[in-house]
Amino acid sequence: MKLNELDLFPYPFHDDVYRYSNNSVLMDKPSSVEITPNYLEEINLKRKLLGSSPARCFQSLPYAKKAQWEVLEIVAQQLADSYPDKFSLDKKGKNWVFCNTLLNENHSFIIGDDSTLPHEPLDFIGRHVQEDLILMMQRDGDLYLDAGQLCFPANWSLAFNLGMKFKEIHNPIPGFKEEKLDDRILGFLLRVEAGNPWQRKNWSLMAGNRMDTSLETYDQWGKDRKKVTRENAGEFVYLRVEVQKILRMPRTNGILFTIHTYLLSLDEFCQNRKWLEQFYSILSELPEYIAEYKGLSMYKDQVLQYLKDKMKRGD
Amino acid sequence: MKQESGDTPMAAFIPGKRKYLFCFDEIGMSLLEKIMADIRAKDIPFEIFHFSHQESALPAWLSSQKMGCYLYIAVSRKYLYQIMCLAEAAGFSEEEVQLIGYGDKEIHLFCCRCHSITELAAAANKHAEQLCSCCGLLLTVSSHYSPLRNAYLGYPAII
Amino acid sequence: MYKENTIPVVVKTIQIETPFVKRFTLTAENGYILPGFSGGSHITAYIEGSEGLLERAYSLTSYGDNNESYEISIHLSETSRGSSSYWHRHMKIGDKLRISYPKNYFQLSYRAKHHVFYAAGIGITPFLSMMAELCERGASFELHYAAKSREFCAFYHLLRSKFPRQCHFYFSCEKAPKKLTYESLQHHPIGTHVYFCGPESFISSFKDAAIALGYPYSSVHYERFTARSSKSAAPFLIELLNGETIPVSKEQTLLEALLEKGMKVPYSCRAGRCGTCELKVLKGEIDHYDEFLSDEQRNSNSVILSCVSRAKSEKLLLEYG
């Protein structure tokens, strides 16, 4: 039985008005990653991208190695604990064996010994999960992007952002600095504690269903936004939601962000009448600076017309 | 360490330090004159380092300093980044250094597509579109700066 | 309010370190391994005492790959409000309690070229794991440690054998008394970070001396363990700009009272951590319970996180509505 995509879709809104905010909530059941029915498809795509564009998809700084091992440990342990029929992690002292039955792979390695893994530790474990993994180390009272595996970015470049502080990374977001949101969110992140992870959702619209919307390939996929019409928006435009999990890593005191990307076409999305209505009010009220940054000003009107048509037809 | 971006460099006096350090070249010296005179008048300890005369001795001079010092660097923008890195390597933090650059600054442009860095001539107009010297993509220069790459991010100019 | 996940543990060993300090080893109740931790970390221990739940923070004094147990060291305080006295007089091997995951608000600097630790008395505890981490990194450090005498100096032998070159002791009550002063702050090379831990007066005098010498704030680190008292909530009133007055009962949060009235106050975590529900206060005294605002913001008495914080005065006038 195929689970309905609509049931699995992480609806991102809880109000009729959208503004940037720290919309993080404590997770009821702590976890770092989730397996969905798209697992094989997305893992294959990730591995293909990592093979063809390694510098775009994985970056690390030398001093983040110990923290990378902690990421591997946290993610592998959680996979084994949450999905015991699919994954296992067998630890005999420093000799560990990680089994992934979905991919039919067994990996033996010595924890902490880079030479026993085919890739760097974060890059290795990232090839077993659908999430993008971003490691931010806490150094001298700030958070720095010191390693990451990023295959499904929402129009940003990991290679450019490597080594940057949290506020430097978010500098291009309009209104973020002016409203002191960068200070507030940084302050929040610095106080995230081990054992008590948080979750937030982020959204945007995409013309097309491409997962790999990197800044590096923007010159290719960016054009598609000009092709949106009132008529094709339903099947051509996708709501893109990132479920971001924020965990403190106790051993190295870093922060691990895992980002799980979900795409749903507007046609499918609008099957839920409440979602359709709320999204219509959000989009019609959305300030231009947010629409511009989310890359949807070019076709916002077409989408609004489409949503309006949908609402009328439902009456 | 923040690099001031204005065209008229201004050094600001930061009080409450046990000793002040001044590192400058010929023109840079004039930019620090006022502060140096103030410090002399107040009889606060200070040391000077003439960058153009004894460049190679700079790392040792920086490392020999004690906690509680405050460093002013006033040099041509050509050398500013390099000296800032030396100060950082010696242990100076952002809070302990002020950078005053003069003259035209070379801008490094990071190509979002191929990750190459294009050096823009000092006189180049920052706001004009530029071709990536490696992949040839036409880029607009953004204000997004990476300290690690010492470069500004270039976005595709035409979509 | 923010209620953290905890780990159930068992007291495995109790050792006497000095006449006033005991060391306790804790292992996970279910036999699992415990989470790793970084130098300077502490845990919060929750104990059911005769006068209710005791909640205290203790530095982890063990360090390394051994994640089967944690060690904490507790000084019996004369003025103890129950916690250290409970640990010293009632805690037995095999007793169960809950502890938080390791937290670190006293992290080692990454950019420091040299680290200098100043400890007085039981203030030594966070430095043990910090020095061990620096050894592992191959970084340069030194310790200046003041105690009454060798006998009352916790970890004296361990420190001397583990870090013989880096430790300097100052015994005030021995035959040739030596006093630890902040004079040495003048001699630290550029790129040094200093760390202070001990009684409040010790921390503030060293901190003030460092700042007076011109040390930047970011190179000066200190840790205070102040227990947050959880008072019982009292009802209060809020007045809005439109003149409306809303009562907040003792079972309710300010946020809940506003939401109940149909006010669209933005909020998210409801735990005093994300800052979304911040409101401006024009009049009245605030009782802050959040973990979000800075000390400066707190003292300004002008902003409140409505999801957890309350009024000290009878009424708060909000810039809202």
Automatic annotation (TrEMBL), chain A:
Source species, domain of life: Bacteria
InterPro entries: HODM_asu-like
Name of the protein in its database record: DUF3445 domain-containing protein
Organism lineage: Bacteria, Bacillati, Bacillota, Bacilli, Bacillales
TrEMBL record, chain B:
Domain of life: Bacteria
Domain Dimethylamine monooxygenase subunit DmmA-like C-terminal: 109-154
Short name of any one Pfam family annotated for the protein: DmmA-like_C
UniProt-recorded name of the protein: Dimethylamine monooxygenase subunit DmmA-like C-terminal domain-containing protein
Source organism of this protein record: Peribacillus deserti
Organism lineage string: Bacteria, Bacillati, Bacillota, Bacilli, Bacillales
TrEMBL record, chain C:
Cofactor: FMN
Protein name: Ferredoxin-NADP reductase
UniProt domain FAD-binding FR-type: residue ranges: 4-109
Signal peptide location: none
Organism, scientific name: Peribacillus deserti
UniProt keywords, alphabetically: 2Fe-2S, Flavoprotein, FMN, Iron, Iron-sulfur, Metal-binding, Oxidoreductase
SUPFAM superfamilies xrefs: 2Fe-2S ferredoxin-like, Ferredoxin reductase-like, C-terminal NADP-linked domain, Riboflavin synthase domain-like
Superkingdom of origin organism: Bacteria
PROSITE patterns attached to this UniProt entry: 2FE2S_FER_1, 2FE2S_FER_2, FAD_FR
Record-annotated 2Fe-2S ferredoxin-type domain positions: 236-321
Pfam families noted in UniProt: DmmA-like_N (PF22290), Fer2 (PF00111)
